[in-house]
Amino acid sequence: MQFPQSLNRAQLPLFEGFLAATTAPLMEESELQYPWPEHSEAFSELSLRGAAGHCHNLLAPVLRELSQNDSSRWLTLIAPPASLTQSWLREAGLNRERILLLYPRSGQSALELAGEALKLGHSHTVVSWLQPLGQQAKRQLAQAARQGKAQSLNISLG
């Protein structure tokens, strides 16, 4: 039996690879504060359908993980649904000291506010609830996220 070429190559043992990774040169402080992988996707979407309680149960761990990010930057929620109250944030175990809740001012859309928050770079992730979200708006959010070295997450609750 003949194996594909890639299987015939010598492999680095697991622990040697781990030890080699821990001896990497130190990064500069600016790289530690705002790491931005070149291959990273700047825009993501999460669509949850079903009963509101079930959707919230699925959403809670995602937001909890984002709120506990080690970054010095904020998790910013743009115009969250009314059902995501301060008490829900507390009960879901989110670190409310690292969360900004922003709402558009008169004459400003949630999309514009999300774009501004992303561009500023004060947030590691900006979460929006924009529905429907067309391809042009997705590109705008992705570009703003890249500019601010942040992540844009749009959540669709149905």
Automatic annotation (TrEMBL):
Listed Pfam families: SulA
Entry's transmembrane regions: none
Superkingdom of source: Bacteria
Protein name: SOS-induced cell division inhibitor SulA
Organism: Pseudomonas zhanjiangensis
